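Thread: quick sanity check before group meeting

JM: Hey all, I'm pulling together slides for Thursday and realized we never actually wrote out the predicted structure for the chain we discussed last week. Dropping the sequence here so it's in one place. If anyone has concerns about the input, flag it before I start.
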Amino acid sequence: MGSIITFYSYKGGVGRTMALANIGAALSIWGKKTLLIDWDLEAPGLENYFKTLLPEFNTVLKKEGLIDILYKKTTDPSFSAKSIIWKNYLTQIKTENNSNLFLLTSGRKDENYVTKVQNLNFFDLYNKYEGGDFLEEIRSHWKKEFDIILIDSRTGLTDSSGVCSIHMPDVLMILFTATEQGLKGTLDVVSKSKQKHQELIYDRLKLKAFPIATRFDNSELKLTEEWLNKFAKELNDIYKDFINNYEEGNNEIMPLDILVKTKVPYISFYSYGEKLPLLEQGGSDPNSIGYVYETIAAIIANDFKNIEKLKDERDSYVKMGKGEEILDFQYYKKIIQQEKEEKRLLEESLRLENKKLEEKLLLINTNKANQIAKLKTILYWVIGSILFIIIIYFIVISRGSGETKVEATADSTSSVMDTAAMTTDMVDSMAKMAIDSSAGKMMVNDTAVNAIKK
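JM (edit): ok, ran it. Output follows.
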């Protein structure tokens, strides 16, 4: 089932028809069977954008179109939607060897065209000629036969524009410029269209409106920023329909992000004549008007879904609209972020474990040093006590043996002193060995810590 999208503007001169022509051409090239309808009956001319693609252009101007169908319904009660032979009204346009683009003009451009437009009364069409059911049947036929139907609506508040903005569309693409009148008119039309859309007797889903800011002079950076921020604030509620989880605050894109990606720049060259820059220059240059048209075409091709990808993955989003196979870069980005977070947590855990090990090794080494110091102190006390006892012993013996033994006693005393000196050296040696042993264990522990860190 196709989707009907009306391109509407409250004021004229916003580039509405040019945008529709370029976007429609892009969608057809991407494989979407697309129908363009010129519903601007008072100021028609959609066919002029395809003049170079229509070898028999004069024949197209002579072909009957929308006004002829509507007018015939008011003059012939037996005329029904089922009796319309659509091949007599539609013109097929070939773009890049592609035949998916079709055009329904406003009508035959002859001396009777203006009269038909002036005499067509939409109030009578609905109330006298069952025009509501008639248009509903036509609408169903279009949705069945085409993937995308783009309607170029009349500007302002007219019966004709009301049909285009309320009865016919599934989505209302509303274009406006950076003026208070344009912004307020846009808000008013969106509000009234949604309200009237809910009152239709025909089965409908909720009408969505997608705002598009146009004619932005990118050289005026300060003014551009001010107006975009103003638009983002005023149009916030309208953009909610397209942003996932907006109410919960989990949205990955904001209205300002969408405005920045879809604002149509003003380029004076395209103010002259009817051109198709998207077909002529492509959409690769971010500063070009074709780039923005391609972005909007992708939004339509993607059925206004996954619009959050526009923020950081615009090119991938366009490829999705074209039906090209792409990698989900956002998915892989999340996977990489998760891996980075896991690595960070692991490194933090290792750092804490290393710190604990270092503290334990320091405590062990401190305790061993204290134990060695205590051991040396005890050994010195023991050896000192032994030497003291030995000295006292020899003194007592020497006094009891008389003077004849004084020399022997001196020799013995000297021997004892030598022995004490040797003993002291042994204690120092033992203590040194203990310290060296402790240092060796510390080196082993340091090696273990380094291994853990690696």
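AS: nice. The chain is about 55% helix and 10% strand. Residues 404-410, 438-454 have pLDDT under 50 and may be disordered.
JM: adding both to the slides.
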